[in-house]
Amino acid sequence: MSKKFSFTFSFIKAFIPQNIKNKTIFNIYGLLGKYTSFISQKTIVAHAKANREELTNTSLYLFQQKFIENQAEWGKVLFGRGRQSTMAYSGCGIIAVCNALIALGKTISPEQVADLISDFEREGAAVGGKFGVSSKAINEYFVRRSYSTILSVDADANTIEEIEKLCEIVLVTAYNDKQDITAYIHTVCITREQNKGYVLHNAYYREHGQWAPRQVGMCTLYEAITQIGINASPICVIGIQNDSSYPISFDH
Q1: pLDDT(242) > 90
Q2: What's the CA gap between 84 and 194, in Å, rounded?
Q3: In whole angstroms, what is the distance from residue 139 CA to residue 91 CA?
Q4: CB 251 within 8 A of CB 183
Q5: Model confidence at 183, in pLDDT bands (50, 70, 90)?
Q6: Mind listing the pLDDT tens digit for each residue in 9-47?
Q7: Which of 160, 237, 232, 241 has the alpha carbon at shortest distance from 203?
Q8: Which of 51-65, 130-144, 187-201 is least confident?
Q9: Could you tell me the sign of the dihedral formed by the alpha carbons of 41, 42, 47, 49, in that order?
């Protein structure tokens, strides 16, 4: 590979994260989630039936108030349309929502997870789910259930510090590598534990051969976010305040 070609390819990979504002990405992603789900009601119903059976009968999915860390093993749980329509491929946003609900003290059943997937298949699944779920749809999910949220598309550390002061549960959509769009985007739930600091959930972290939460310790929220990927940078940060008695419901 020539030096000129290598430079050009690196420039192209870095162009979106380095040159397009987060607000623009957030808005485009939101429009894709609203208008490009392209998932038929017949498919949604079929997925819900299959997912309830899979999630109920397989020991990979344990919901007894345990955070979900093993997205890579959700290859048989259906989400979206197309050849790669699984939670393992593009379900990180939905898993982040599940983990946030667990952090908020809600008990999550396999049936409710299946219903949540259906909820986002109806609205929020960008390009039929190939691009996951939009941050806007995730924020609206919690707002509809009377949670107070603070949303920021400003990657500035000072802005994120304000969210840190008010919220112990945060959902972050970030570039895994701010220099390489081909490293994709990932959405995680971040919690703060007393005397332990921040914990990243479903951050593709393995410990002793098992998928595990990533303990990043006593640091700032911004520093925790940078640990999502090799060279991570936030696109959207949603802080959630635990002030709702709204029951978990997936009715429309």
Answers
A1: no
A2: 39
A3: 16
A4: no
A5: confident
A6: 566 778 888 889 999 999 999 999 999 999 999 999 999
A7: 232
A8: 51-65
A9: positive
What pLDDT does 24 receive? 96
Note the pLDDT tens digit of each residue in 88-126: 999 999 999 999 999 999 988 899 999 999 999 999 999
Residue in the block written with tokens 């790669």: 84
Type of residue at 93: G
* Nearest residue to 146 via CA among 31, 43, 242: 242
What's the 3-state SS for the chain?
CCHHHHHHHHHHHHHHHHHCCHHHHHHHHHHHHHHCCCCCHHHHHHHHHHHHHHHHHCCCCCCCCCCCCCHHHCCCCECCCCCCCEHHHHCHHHHHHHHHHHHCCCCCCHHHHHHHHHHHHHCCEHHHHCCCECHHHHHHHHHHCCCEEEEECCCCHHHHHHHHHHCCEEEEEEECECCCHHHCEEEEEEEEECCCEEEEECCCCEECCEECCEEEECCCHHHHHCCCCCECEEEEEEEEECCCCCCCCCCC
